[in-house]
Write a structure and sequence with these properties.
The protein has six helices and two strands. It has two domains: about 70 residues, Multidrug-efflux Transporter Regulator, Chain: A, Domain 2; about 55 residues, no CATH class. By secondary structure, the chain is mainly alpha-helical. The N and C termini lie far apart (about 70 Å). The protein is elongated. A two-stranded antiparallel sheet has the order 1-2.
């Protein structure tokens, strides 16, 4: 199918599909007239890519696991492993954000928040 039809069926723009092709997420062959021709299963794959993005996966992550997932997009075992890995990343990010929030909270009302750490360090006796 040509890129226009693929765009219409997938809900993506032609530019997005061209970008995905450039980064290797989709592959189309060139016809003699220079038009792109994509296999019908590309629609399913593009829906999968968009769903993965809404679940927080980056295009790089999708591309890194794309070969395995394209062959078995409904594999519960493969997907569960990826989801568990993503949950660990999210948990680590949440811990980092909680620490950042606590640091910002400690600096509220201290005058210059950038110097609050200096004052705190100056009050701590050396061991």
């Amino acid at each position: 199918m040509r890129i226009g039809e693929l765009a219409a069926r997938s809900g993506l723009t032609k530019d997005t599909i061209r970008f995905y092709e450039r980064i290797g997420l989709v592959t189309g062959k060139r016809l003699a007239n220079g038009y792109r021709d994509f296999p019908p299963e590309t629609v399913t794959w593009l829906v999968y890519v968009r769903t993965a993005q809404t679940l927080g996966f980056s295009l790089a992550e999708i591309a890194r696991h794309g070969e395995d997932l394209r062959d078995a997009p409904d594999s519960a075992e493969a997907l569960s492993t990826l989801f568990e890995e993503k949950i660990r990343v999210i948990d680590a990010r949440m811990a980092d954000l909680a620490a950042l929030r606590a640091d910002l909270e400690a600096r509220v009302g201290t005058g210059c928040p950038l110097r609050a750490a200096e004052r705190a360090a100056a009050r701590v006796p050396d061991a």
